[in-house]
Sequence to fold (764 residues):
Amino acid sequence: MRILILGGDGYLGWPTAMNLAVENEVWVVDNYLRRRIAEATDSEPLIATPSLTERARLFEAVSGNRIETIIGDLGDPDLMYDIVQRVQPECIIHYAEQPSAPYSMRGFKEARETLQNNLNVTFNCIWAVKDIVPDCHIIKLGTMGEYGTPNIDIEEGWLDIEHKGRKDKFLFPRAAGSLYHTTKVLDTDLIWFYVRTYGIRVTDLMQGPVYGLSTDEADLDQGLVPNFNYDDIFGTVVNRFLVQAVAGIPLTVYGGGGQTRGYLNLRDTLQCVRLSVENPADKGTLRIFNQFTETLSVNDIATKIKTVGDSMGLGVNIKSIENPRKEREEHYYNPTHTGLLDLGLEPNYMTDDVIASMLERIVVNKDNINTDRIMPRVRWNA
Amino acid sequence: MRILILGGDGYLGWPTAMNLAVENEVWVVDNYLRRRIAEATDSEPLIATPSLTERARLFEAVSGNRIETIIGDLGDPDLMYDIVQRVQPECIIHYAEQPSAPYSMRGFKEARETLQNNLNVTFNCIWAVKDIVPDCHIIKLGTMGEYGTPNIDIEEGWLDIEHKGRKDKFLFPRAAGSLYHTTKVLDTDLIWFYVRTYGIRVTDLMQGPVYGLSTDEADLDQGLVPNFNYDDIFGTVVNRFLVQAVAGIPLTVYGGGGQTRGYLNLRDTLQCVRLSVENPADKGTLRIFNQFTETLSVNDIATKIKTVGDSMGLGVNIKSIENPRKEREEHYYNPTHTGLLDLGLEPNYMTDDVIASMLERIVVNKDNINTDRIMPRVRWNA
Fold:
């Protein structure tokens, strides 16, 4: 299958590209926005990553599988149309969004950059597909964060509502906790409008926070490692805690630590995306999956990592700090997530073994840890 | 009160500015986007309107009330910040959006222009208020079209949902029928995020289609008339039917004509906005009103206008044509609209007298009618 990956240089985009390149023709596009933001905010990954083209060359050398790379800004409609015309993709995987919640809350400039980049790429992608390859399956990375933390069970994207004796089905209500997450709500509204108006086919993967740095392909060579961030800008909480445990500084729980989310292993992101590629949404359908394997609170995660870290002699401490975000620290959270399991997802849970192997990998790179970038540098109520 | 009106040159913006200038200090800003689109698409109003500055001069001459005018693009954040800094508004009324559904469905360029203009102005407005005048009350013109035509009663902006024995309150689900209407859904999501995060105060007026060309102030001089459009791009259905009745061409009902919406007289838009100005939303609150006075189907409207037109000897015919839009032609429609009535709205309904006086005004300007611009030139499924 001809697959085009938008945002193919990212933490998830790059391992996805390698994974799918084993059996498909894969093109990746990236504008290096994340690299530029990482440089500007001192938020570079634990293990330096070569350029996208360099990584593709390396991957071909060690695996024999080719990945075509294009560096350019998909917010430019001419580039989007040109690439879709050239590649004639049967599937587009759209990761090309500014993915940091704290960055999107830093100030006007960063908020505007996030809004414009994310909306423009989604809009251009929809139009290029509609105009050039209307049967192409768009797989869009959404986020569980679109839903926020409602007091009712979170269904998979949609909700049947009965009101005053009448019934209808709607998008599940969304109320996100950062501007970044809100841009994904806007993406969903935009995509749903064009799906029902122009009959394109889309799968929206409402993903929870991802952790890990090992995949079958990434493990082939140190230079193929995903961008493993542990800073306050791009680092997800699990990856940040793992690095704190190795660095010998306390795991910094934001506020009460009861904040609960659906998490998944990087390997399961690859499974979920692959299952979506292999089982496309029907024409004229917006199919939505909640993409995570288990729900955990921040305190749960801290305790798990402390337990494993202590058993390895790391002497891990946990410390609550003032929450820089505006979010509920105790809340109901019960999201459905059966769609991807029904397609065949076999979860890799956050077991002690999984945590231990991540910690071991970080220990090897301990000298790279810059502890200045771990504490929150952005406040929601600044 | 110091009031800043964004989009003050429009069909609603200009009469609002005059109406509020009688008792307040009013500034209006406009980038003439609608004028440029009207020129480019041959969609100019029935009665030519002088420039915004010219109209303000004329209004001051006949009424003694001053309106400050600024021509510029509020999608430019520097201009938005500069104006808000200079004016220090206590209230901002935000009409500055590309308002045509057909224009937004014409092609990529027009869709992109609509998305970017509408989102950027809303975004810049929110930020300028947050940073410079955080107590300022933003009155945002939304649209009843955000809700679409659900099979349940439409509440005023919000919906209490009980699901699997648990309860929460959410934005009422939205599913709009054009890209223009969808940009207003995105506006709502964006505003709601920033209201709950930064504590700004916003009233969102979910307005139905407006008709009419008479207001106390507009009637002072022919040069003060609102931009009365009867074309397929900017003309709302009532205004278009009125002109067709006078021009002696059939009232063109799109499809079955069972499409039902909530309508209101231009005079009632002024009342609703004034009531919102005088009764601001609380800090940290997104207050939403459904702004219309009566629900009517397209067939209802055609019949009303035919009845009055025939009694005036116009000999009105009604003709169904293929629907250029993608919409339900028979559907349930029962929206709540008590909020503005509770504040004191006294409706001017679409009575025979009201229709007759509009027809008489159009008869006087009959020679200006260009019938080439009435039939639909944009199709949703092009």
User: Anything to note?
Assistant: The two ends of chain A are 47 Å apart (CA to CA).
